[in-house]
Amino acid sequence: MTAPEELQTYSTAYQQGMREEMERDATIFVLGTDLYERGGHFAQVKGLGESFGAARIRDTPISEAAMVACGVGAALNGTRPVVDLNFMDFAYGAMDELVNQAAKIRYMWGRPVPLLVRATAGVSQGGPQHNNSLQSWFMGTPGLAVVFPSRPWDVKGLLKAALRGQDPVIFMMHKLLTGARGPVGGMDDVVPVGTARVVRPGQDVTLITYGYGVVIAEQAAQALSGSGIDIEIIDLRTLAPLDLQTIVTSVRRTGRVLVLDEAPALAGPAAEISATVSDHAFWYLDQPVVRLAGAHSPIPHSPPLVEALLPAPDQVIDALRRLAAADGPQLAAS
Amino acid sequence: MSTAQAVQDSSSFVEGTTAEELGCWLAEMLLIRTFEETADGLALRGKIPGGMHPAIGQEAVAVGAVRGLQPDDIVAGTHRSHHHALAKGLPPGPVLAELYGKAGGNSGGRGGSMHLADFDRGLWGSNGIVGAGLGIALGAALGARVRGSNQVALGFFGDGGANTGRVWEFVNLAAVWKLPLVVACENNLYAVETATKAVTGGGDIAARAAGFGLPSRAVDGQDIVAVQAAVREAAGRARAGDGPTFLELLTYRYKGHNSGEVIKYRTEDEVLQWRNSRDPIEQFSARLTAAGLLSSDLLAEYVDDARTRVDEAVAFAEESPWPDPSTAAENVSAWSDTNGHAR
Fold first, then answer.
1. Is the minimum CB–CB distance between B334 and chain A shorter than 8 Å?
2. Which of A169, B101, B148, B295 is deepest in the core (most CB within 10 A)?
3. Which of B151, B90, B147 minimizes the C-alpha distance to B115?
4. Domain ranges (residues) in chain A
5. Is A167's CB within 8 Å of B333's CB?
6. Which of residues 81-110 of B touch A (CB under 8 A)?
C-alpha cells in the first residue's frame, strides 16, 4: 500500500480516484450532463470542474449518442475519455455507439478503445425506467468489460485499472451504495479488471454475488454464523470477464452454491454464473446450484412492490440454511 | 504516376492545384468506377459474401472530399464506402480481399465491405450503421481538439442518415463545441428504396442543418471541382478553430442499394438522365479536355491503368488465403483471454 488507508464514501472514492488519475494523465477528460457545476447526479465528480476546468470536465447536452460517439472517436484519437451517463438507463440512447461501435473496434480494426463509461445503476427508487439491470446486456456483449464494485476500495481501484487499460469498460455503481463508507487505496492501488474477491472465507456454502448483493450477503452470513453455518462470500467485482478461477476454486471446496443477483433471472448474470459452475465444477457439487434473482418484471415505483420482486434478506438466509443442511438427492431449493 | 507526367504543362483551373494533380483526380475516379463495376460483377457471381453497396456514380464526392483535406485528416464512411476508401489511398487489392473475407483484407476478413478501415491512411472505418460514421468523426475531432493537434475529421452519411436522430445530436454537439469537423451528407436521393423527398420533412437537408447554427450549403456532388473547393474551405475553417461546416453533396447512385437488386422505385429514364448529362467522370474529362489538360491518349492511359490495378486486385483477392478459423474469437478485448473468461 502506498498511502495510509482513509475512509471515503463509494462516491468520494470515485472522485478521489478520478482526481489522482487526471493529475497523472493529461489525456483523461470527463464528459456528460451536469458535471462541471453540479458534479454529477451522484456527486461523482464534485469539485473536479473547479480543479480541471471546463475543457476536462465537459458539460454536454442530453445527447447520449453524441456523448458516447465522442468517447469512441476521442479514444481512437489518442485520448482517454470518460463518458458519464449519470444513470445507466440512459445508455439505451447510445446503444449503437456502445455495442456496435466501441465494443467491436478492436475486433474489426485491431485498435484499442480506451473508453470508460460510468453510470449509477442498480435497483432502488425511480420506477420502471431508472432501474434497469443493463449488466445482463453488457456482459453478453463481446468486447465490453463490465465492472460493478461494492465498496469504496474497489471503486477507486477498478477506476484506476480502467483508466490505465486499453479497451472499453462499463463502470456500474449501485444507487444504494452511494454513501457507503470504507477504506480506499493510494495512488497505485489498482484492482485488476476481471478479479473477484473472497469477502469472507467459509467452509459450508459459496455465496456468489456483486454490487449491493454483497451487503445482503454479509448480513446473511453474519446471521448464520451463530448457528454454525460458515458462508464463503465471493464479490465478483467484475461481471465481464468473469473470474472463473476464484469461483471454481471456492465451489470445488464447498460443493454448495447460492448465486444472489437483483437482475431478472432470465438470461442474467446469475444464469451465466450458474452455468459456469455447472461447466467447471459439476462433479464437485453436493447440491444443485440455487439461484436467487430478480423477477422477470420491470421495477415499479411503490416500495412494497419493489421489495416483492427482489430476493429478500430472509429468503437469502433461508436458502443458505437449507443448502447447508441438504443431504442426498433432496433439492435444497424446493 | 508516370501518366501524370504526360499531362500538358498548362496551368490548372483549380486554385492551388497543379494540372498534374487534376490528372490524378480523374485517374482516381476511374479507378473507383472500374473497381466498383468489377466488384459488383464479382458480387453477382457470389464472390462477396453478403454482397455490397456499389457507389458507381458517386466518385466525385469521395475524390473531391479527400482532395479537399490534408493527408493526415480523418475520414469516416458509411455502408457505401468503397469510393471513400480508395480515395483515401487504400490499395485496391486488400480492399477487394476484405470484401471476399480473405486473410489479405484490410481487416483480415473480419470487417468486410461495410467495415473497411486503415487508420494509418486516415480511413476510420466505413460503417454498417446509418449515421454512425459521423459519430466516429465527431469523436475524432474532439480528440484532435483535446490533444491540440491540427487534424480535421470528415464524417460521411447519406440522405437516409439525415433522418436519424443521432446525426443531429452529432451536428449539434460539433456546432456547440466548434469542433474541427466537416459534416458531409452524401445525398444520392434514395434511402435504400425510399425516395428521400418523400420522407424528409421540409425537403431540404442543408436548410435543416442551418438551424444548428453552423454554415451549411448544398453542393453539386457530381462536380469534383465544386466538392473539392467546398471541403477545402470547410476544412480550412475547421482548422482555424471556427468550427464545423455542413455540406450536402448532391449525387446519384447508378446501381441499386445492393448489388444485383431489381430496381422498381425509379425509372430507367431517370438513371439515364444522370448518366448521360451529369456523370462526374465524363464532366471532369470534358473540362480537362477543354482546358487542354487531357488528350485521348492520356485518357486511354488512365483507363488502362485503372483496369490493370483492378485486375491485380482481383488476382490478389483470389489468391489470398482464407483466414485461420482458429483465430475467429481472438483479440475481442484486451480485458479477456478466452471467450469472455479471465484466467
1. yes
2. A169
3. B90
4. 6-184, 197-325
5. yes
6. 107, 110
Select A197-325's CATH number: 3.40.50.920, 1.10.287.1490, 3.30.200.20, 2.60.40.420: 3.40.50.920
B341 neighbourhood in chain A, CB within 8 Å: 241-242, 244, 276
Between CA B202 and CA B204 the distance in angstroms is: 6
Residues of chain B positioned with their CB less than 8 A from the CB of A99: none
Cα separation, A235 vs A210, in Å, equals 5
Q: DSSP strand E in chain A: where?
A: 6-9, 28-32, 57-59, 80-87, 116-121, 145-147, 169-174, 181-184, 197-200, 205-209, 231-235, 238-240, 242-243, 257-264, 290-294
Chain A 145-164, CB below 8 Å of chain B: which residues?
145
A27 CB neighbours in chain B (<8 A) are 146-147
Please indicate if any CB of chain A lies within 8 Å of the CB of B15. no
Domains of chain B: 2-319 (3.40.50.970)
Q: Which of B140, B176, B343 sits opposite A244 (nearest CB)?
A: B343
**CB distance from B170 to chain A under 8 Å?**
yes
pTM of structure? 0.95
Compare all CA atoms of chain B with the CA of A115 and give the residue at the minimum distance.
Answer: B139
- Say how far apart CA B204 and CA B241 lie, in whole Å: 27
Model ipTM over 0.90: yes
Per-residue pLDDT tens digits for A14-52:
999 999 999 999 999 999 999 999 999 999 999 999 999
CA–CA distances in Å: residue A55 to residues A60, B153, B169:
11, 19, 19
Fold that domain A6-184 belongs to in CATH: Rossmann fold (3.40.50)
pLDDT of residue B7: 43
Q: Check A69 against B138: CB less than 8 A apart.
A: yes
DSSP secondary structure letter of residue A100: I
Task: Tell me the pLDDT tens digit for each residue of B30-44.
Answer: 999 999 999 999 999
**Contact (CB, 8 A) for B32 and B62:** yes
